[in-house]
Amino acid sequence: MRFSNLRPSTFRRSHAILIKTGEHEMANVENQAVVLTQRETQVLTLVSDGYSAKEIAKRICIAPRTVERHIENIRLKVRARNRAHMVTCALTLGLMATPIRFIPLATQQDVHPLLYSTL
User: Which of 63, 17, 11, 72 minimizes the C-alpha distance to 40?
Assistant: First the structure.
């Protein structure tokens, strides 16, 4: 599973919703015990990666309507208003790993390998 590939647009929307929602509403979400099925977790991961329901359906070989139903079930379980809020709530509840973006800095050898090769 790819938990670390949260798209920047999804992250920005989720972060904005988290700020607008406020701590008092997120505390209500944090106090509930949310259990997702294996398929719901798989769908949630793909939604956080930015895939549409149709793309998810093709990827995991189920009907698009079934994917929509899984998304709706997840949204209701975490008490989210929309998909971006759903991802935010899932991150808050620990249902997903926090995305970590690590991009190593390029060294001079990476940029110009021929200039730094030893003869």
Answer: 72
**Do the Cβ atoms of 44 and 32 come closer than 8 Å?**
no
How far apart CA 51 and CA 3 sit, in angstroms, is 13
Q: Map residue 91 onto helix, strand or coil.
A: helix
Residue 9's CB: how many other CB atoms inside 10 A? 10
Distances (CA, A) of 86 to 32, 61, 104: 15, 23, 30
| CATH match for 8-111 among 3.40.50.1000, 3.40.50.300, 1.10.10.10, 3.30.2310.20 | 1.10.10.10
- Reference 43, options 79, 26, 67; nearest CA is 67
44-92 pLDDT, tens digit per residue, is 999 998 999 999 999 999 999 999 999 999 999 999 999 999 999 998 8
Q: Give the C-alpha separation, 88 to 23, whole Å.
A: 13
CB-count burial class (<10 Å; 0-12, 13-18, 19+) for 92: middle
